[in-house]
Amino acid sequence: MILFLFSIAFIDSVLIGAQVGICFYDLTGDSFLLCYHHDQNFLPASNLKLFTTASALFLLGPDFRFQTRFALDSDTNLYILGGGDPTLSRAKLLHELKQITQRFPIQRIFLHGRAIHGFRYPWGWSWHYLDAAYAPRLSGIILDKNTFELILKPGTEVGETINYTYRPQLNDILIVNRATTYPPDSGFKIDLYRELGANRVHLYGGIGLSSPDKKIPISLADPLQSHRELIARMLGCEVLILSGEDSLPELTTIDSILSPPLIEILHEMNTESENIYAEAILNRLANAETTRSTLNAGIQAEKNLLVRLGI
Questions:
Q1: Tens-place pLDDT, residues 185-235
Q2: Rounded to whole angstroms, how far apart are CA atoms 227 and 215?
Q3: How many domains does the chain have?
Q4: 111 φ, ψ to 5°?
Q5: How many whole angstroms from its chain centre is CA 75?
Q6: Whether 38 and 163 share a structural domain
Q7: With a threshold of 0.70, does the pTM exceed it?
Q8: Same-domain pairing of 119 and 171
Q9: Angle 262-272/48-59 helices, nearest 10 degrees?
């Protein structure tokens, strides 16, 4: 304890201007052991994921799994019914679709992502957050966290424009490259931003000649449209996105993809501070079919639970 108090004194001198607070609470004795700046108001951040974690475990259970269903209304029409699984990858989805097309003569695929709906821009977010991998747009069908990967590497000589590639190769991705190759050992000094509403990315700054390749995930402007393009190209069939007004015909489920158990998803969410995991889980706390916004309803469900728990 004495060592900890000395550490606090050191923290105060190093993090001048920062807000630091901590509490140790004895669950057995029902009392605080140590409080430091416990009465200060801090800006809520990723610690809110702890409330979402508790709510998800209480309301959904540790064994809950997101489900992506595949259903037919005929032998030629396939429906992908997204369940908002934040762990689903392009590789896993395409593998499943290729297996289905070997069993059925699929001509059209319909993407149904209404399991999650709500706001395009979350409250309080700045526009420059929206190209970041930590702030991807949420959708009912989430693939590779709704991002694409930009790979940057230096040119062959100092002063040359840097080289880049990206994956998957989507038609609407455009890279405006104004970054150059710096002298060796200059490090990685790249600034970038993605335009609002488009997968048009601007690169500035530079990369040292001796720097290794750098992989940067960037959020997609319209994930469902990007998923539609990729599936259509890979399978060679027509792919359509169902709107919120479209009603579903009578369907026969033929297969599904399940996510890992919720307890595993929560571990990664809190270890890596995955925002899209937290938002997807928050949306699943609501009844997707009967609420105007699953985000609003999820937040309300969490609030109601916290009140019941006396928090």
A1: 999 999 998 988 899 999 999 999 999 999 999 999 999 999 999 999 999
A2: 21
A3: 3
A4: -95, 125
A5: 33
A6: no
A7: yes
A8: no
A9: 180
